[in-house]
Amino acid sequence: MKPSTHWSEVVGEDEEKRHAQFTQEIVELQTRINARKGPGRAFHRKPIAGLRGTLQVPELLPEYAAQGLFAKPGLHETYVRMSNGSVVPQPDALPDIRGFALSVRGLTGPGALGGATDRQDFLLINFPNFGFEDSRDFADIVGPASRGQVALVRFLISKYGPVKGPLEMAKLVAAQSRPFSGFATSSFHSCAPVAWGPYAAWVHVEPVGASRNLLAWRDYGADVRGRLDRGPLTWRLRAQFYTDDRSTPIEDGRVTWKSEKVTVGTLTCDEVVDVETDHFDPWSALAEHRPLGEIMRARKSAYYPSFKNRT
Q1: Which regions in the chain score pLDDT beneath 70?
Q2: CA distance linking residue 284 with residue 111, whole number of Å
Q3: pTM of the entire structure?
């Protein structure tokens, strides 16, 4: 099916209240971990590598892809933060959600939050979907998960019962244990849509030409730095477009989108840099790429207070 502009968002009547509560819970969790581990992010606390490079937007993109940042060919300075997703830092060898945040700089245009912006951020993970329908399911599990597997199992049993609870735990463990070969050789996905002019799309990055290192799991950051010593790292930036509510839903984070992907840029990184003081946020965006869906609206509420609470 062809990309469609007939998408829509469905905003719940209680969202403002729920998102305020969600933000409070995230900040309180972050504060508790800050007291134990020192200042840091609420999620993706452990940095793997910060990189600087360029995003090359090609010529002759199809009309539906040539929107916003991608409306004209060009070369843009870009920063990348690679991270492990756990709220408490842990060894790279343990199962985790891996993050790939990229920020395209030097832009000028109306921002998703109003006013003007000079950057476009995309935040991606190595999972094919978010795994939760919306922020309610995610918020329920964050607190127990931060206290360890025993606390999480007890929570799931209390929520789902003695039969379904352990099954839900098994599903979570299986999801986080999916094979991960390293940041230079894995694909990453936004798992939530953004506007693409009048269209809507997921964003993906896919590695180009990197061979696997079977020992990368020992230290993913060292693997990235070692590769850069030998030459630049390259990824394709791809957009996957909304076609219909069933195969590309705007509001349901459990569904892996099934539609055409179009390569809209080539990301090339050649330098390790410190990005830990930066604020990667999906709402640091052009209005033409504003985040869409309940999960993104919850992030709008939570990201800035969490950023302010790092210290």
Answers
A1: 141-153, 155-156, 160, 165, 169-170, 172-177
A2: 7
A3: 0.92
SS (H, E, C) the chain: CCCCCCCCCCCCCCHHHHHHHHHHHHHHHHHHHHHHHCCCCCCCCEEEEEEEEEEEECCCCCCCCCCHHHCCCEEEEEEEEEEECCCCCCCCCCCCCEEEEEEEEEEEEEECCCCEEEEEEEEEECCCCCCCCCHHHHHHHHHHHHCCHHHHHHHHHHHHHHHHHHHHHHHHHHHHCCCCCCCCCCCEECCCCEEECCEEEEEEEEECCCCCCCCHHHCHHHHHHHHHHHCCEEEEEEEEECCCCCCCCCCCCCCCCCCCEEEEEEEEEEEECCCCCCCCCCCCCEHHHCECCHHHHHHHHHHHHHHHCCC
pLDDT of residue 169: 66
Angstrom distance (rounded) from CA 210 to CA 192: 27
